[in-house]
Amino acid sequence: MSWIELHLHVPSAEAEATEAALEAVGALSVTLLDAYDDPVLEPAPGTRPLWPHVIAVGLFEESVEPLDLLVALEDQISAAAFASARFARLNDRDWTRAWMDGYQAMPFGRRLWVVPSGHPDPQVDDAVILRLDPGLAFGTGTHPTTALCLEWLDGLDWSGQNLIDFGAGSGILAIAGLRLGASQAIAIDNDPQALTACADNAQRNGVQSRLQILDAEQSPPQADRLVANILLKPLLQLAPQLALSVRLGGEAAFSGLLAEQADEFINRYSPWFDELQVSQRGDWIRVSGRRNERT
């Protein structure tokens, strides 16, 4: 069996509340670790000594979906703690092999297939193959938000078009756009682990020469299309930045959204986008639209 660990970097004043939040969303245990190798000297009797900054580590069963976990925690922990979230796996078996043994090639839309290592290409005319194995960065195509974005990418004509994938995770969306015919793509993420995964996956799929990988602090040039599969709160906060990353008349798709969040999202983005359309899979939605010339 294996488990998922969620690491959150918090000041000690938030440690107790963060611990409670992790337990409330199903953590099997919570461990507090020293973030900066700060000593704790002579604590007062009856107090719980903590370092000035701690890393709260929540342990979860392997069946927990990381994105669902983040949604549950979004309003329970501070914005800084949320932004620091990092996932890791704690193994006592060959979880990668087990995952791939149970994972089959999956179609998205008309042409696109995500295929793990060791599996044959699907015998389908005009199939576009994306090779991807499990890793610590988000994005294997199994979550509804990723599937919705892959289907959107598959439904477009990519001749002469370029793409920004904001919050790239494994790079699956940027690489899918390139495999489908995009001329160039930019993958953006704030997690160094994700940036490494993007580079590795791009090389495996033969698209590394057309993919630019950027840290979230770097500003990309405008693109013909943008896809952002993150969560509602950062989508609302980053609305002007994301909107202005799309050229006038260009297209964008946004996911990581629950169905009940559609109105709030559309109200925020309607100044920049027309033809906003909602597609739903289970509890999750994708909103797509066309960049207007009004703002």
Write the layout of secondary structure elements.
Layout (H helix, E strand, L loop, with lengths): L1 E10 L3 H10 L4 E6 L18 E9 L4 H8 L5 H5 L2 E6 L3 H7 L4 E3 L3 E4 L12 E4 L12 H11 L7 E5 L5 H8 L4 E6 L2 H13 L6 E5 L7 E7 L2 H6 L1 H6 L1 E13 L3 H8 L3 E9 L2 E8 L4
Parallel strand pairs: 6-7, 8-9, 8-11, 9-10, 11-12
Antiparallel strand pairs: 1-3, 1-4, 2-3, 5-6, 12-14, 13-14
Polypeptide structure, described:
With 295 residues, the protein is an alpha/beta fold. It has two domains: 2-93, Alpha-Beta Plaits; 102-291, Vaccinia Virus protein VP39 (Rossmann fold, 3-Layer(aba) Sandwich). 28% of the residues lie in helices and 32% in strands. It has a seven-stranded mixed beta sheet, sandwiched between helices. Strands 2-3-1-4 form a four-stranded antiparallel beta sheet. The protein is globular, with a radius of gyration of 20 Å. The N and C termini lie far apart (52 Å). Residues 37-49 and 93-100 have low confidence and may be disordered.
Low-confidence stretches at least 5 residues in length (pLDDT < 50)?
Answer: 37-49, 93-100
What is the gyration radius calculated from CA atoms? 20 Å
Roughly what is the average pLDDT, rounded to an integer?
85
**Count of individual domains:** 2
What share of the residues does DSSP label as strand, in percent?
25-35%
Q: Regarding quaternary structure, how should these chains be classified?
A: single chain
What CATH architecture of the largest domain would you give? 3-Layer(aba) Sandwich
The CATH topology of the largest domain:
Rossmann fold
Number of strands: 14
Structural class: alpha/beta
Major beta sheet, specifics? 7 strands, mixed
Number of helices: 10
